[in-house]
Design a protein that fits this description.
Helix content: 25-40%
Distance between the termini: 46 Å
Structural class: alpha+beta
Bound molecules: (3R)-3-hydroxy-3-methyl-5-(phosphonooxy)pentanoic acid
Order of helices and strands: EEEEHEHHHEEEHHHHEEHE
Number of helices: 9
Radius of gyration: 19 Å
Largest sheet: 7 strands, mixed
Length: about 325
């Protein structure tokens, strides 16, 4: 790109994990959905600066900050130095809705475009995926990769360490209520806390396996349009995550408020401790948002769009988790 040419843009989707967070770290499956909202980044010739006004964030590649180190990891792996990045963030940061992965994907896509190295089909290269994974590792230690996969895909998918991301079928478009606890969540801290719990509590592995099996159930419910069934799965998953001690008083309050406002199911989403909850409340979405706001919490609505059948529903006997 030369001066005077239009800025190169890249987009990364925000995400919610429907079920399977933490279990996915131990090889089980998780189901996540890329959101239509996310982060758009514009790359222009410059000196490696990044600005994200919505998050009051400024950094520079190699300035020693986490964001600077993540930016460095991306431009280094993509051989894309000499660019400035301006991000328009449509999702809150550190809220458990995939903001860091969305930003990393958007920066990487903008950088590749600015350097004129975009795949003719618009597909992400393995180098781009490696760059995003390296940036995510700065923030989250050794992430499973589910956030990065959802940020790239934007669809609903099943993710496991062994099989990666596979789009799955969704019979019926669903609206999801996303409630924000207002407390930032720290993924690396929560993942480490679960690892410590596994050493002290022999049943922790059984809880993680159950969460993985719920991913199979959720995949079936999504394919059949079974909203009530999916609601029960969300409720069960929240109970299991609470048993792993990754919930918090704020997350529990959001979940209970959603149920009181008519949700058929609700759970924390992402690493927990802080961050966000999701609730399924057909016909009562606005009631859920109002109840959360009355209790002092912010929230928004996200859509999970219906898709064509993409993958056979796993059989229990197959033991895919
Ligand atoms: O970064 P979060 O809050 O979306 O959590 C990611 C999901 C975890 O399973 C908790 C961690 C991981 O790496 O998969």
């Amino acid at each position: 790109m030369t001066a005077g040419t239009p800025a190169a843009r890249g987009f990364g989707h925000g995400k919610i994990i429907l079920v399977g967070e933490h279990a996915v770290v131990y090889g089980h499956a998780a189901i996540a959905a890329g959101l239509s909202v996310g982060v758009t980044v514009e790359a222009t010739p410059g000196e490696g600066r990044l600005r994200v006004p919505a998050w009051s964030l400024e950094a520079r590649a190699g300035d020693g900050s986490d964001v600077g180190r993540a930016l460095d990891a991306i431009v280094d792996r993509l051989d894309a130095r000499g660019l400035d990045f301006l991000a328009d963030a449509g999702v809150p940061s550190r809220a458990g809705v995939g903001s860091s992965a969305a930003l990393a994907v958007a920066i990487a896509r903008a950088a590749v475009r600015a350097k004129g190295r975009e795949d003719a089909a618009g597909a992400d290269s393995p180098a781009l995926e490696a760059a995003v994974a390296a940036a995510e590792a700065v923030f989250h230690g050794t992430p499973s990769g589910i956030d990065a996969a959802a940020a790239q895909s934007g669809a609903v998918g099943r993710f496991s360490r062994a099989d990666g991301w596979r789009p799955i079928s969704v019979l019926q478009t669903m609206t999801i209520c996303v409630g924000l606890s207002g407390r930032p969540r720290d993924t690396a801290f929560q993942v480490a806390a679960v690892a410590r719990l596994r050493e002290r509590l022999p049943t922790a592995d059984g809880i993680l396996a159950l969460l993985g099996r719920l991913s199979d159930d959720a995949q079936t419910a999504l394919a059949c349009g079974d909203v009530d069934g999916l609601g029960r799965i969300l409720d069960t998953a929240h109970g299991l995550l609470a048993a792993l001690r990754v919930s918090s008083p704020e997350l529990d309050a959001l979940v209970h408020a959603a149920r009181a406002a008519g949700a058929v199911g609700a759970k924390l989403t992402g690493a927990g401790g802080g961050g966000a909850v999701i609730a399924l409340a057909p016909g009562h979405e606005r009631d859920v948002l109002a109840r959360w706001r009355a209790a002092g919490f912010d929230g928004f609505l996200a859509e999970i769009a219906a898709t064509e059948p993409a993958e056979r529903i796993p059989s229990r006997a197959g033991g895919s988790s």
